[in-house]
């Protein structure tokens, strides 16, 4: 990379990394959405009867239970955050999941609600992580309404187990009971 440009091998490596991390984010987004919807039969029914709400479902899950709970940012210039002065190059850990539960921004923030305002209003990752979220969104809009159409009656059974720590939040175990009829 002496010329300052990426070679084909570097580009391929970046693409592989993006696809791998995007897939992980998508899997967690779909799992988080399925868990939230299955635990709320009224919301599951709403999505089942109105598949066009899939985009709203993704926006709400990105607010309610995002696969990326935090992002690290570096201040490019002097900034003030909550009354604290940050010099240039300060590292800031932005807790997305906490920001999405701010009752001043989101009425009844602990409620998962497909009827919430159509404006996302939540924070999402940008840069390379933004590409991950974009890939996850595509899968995330298709999977829930496809599941809702094919398995209209879905409910959690047993105890769900979250992945331990890490940058991406999802489940290692999520037991569901599904049926095509009530």
TrEMBL record:
It comes from Streptomyces coelicoflavus. Belongs to the cytochrome P450 family. This is Cytochrome P450. Pfam families: p450. GO terms for molecular function: heme binding; iron ion binding; monooxygenase activity; oxidoreductase activity, acting on paired donors, with incorporation or reduction of molecular oxygen. It comes from the Bacteria.
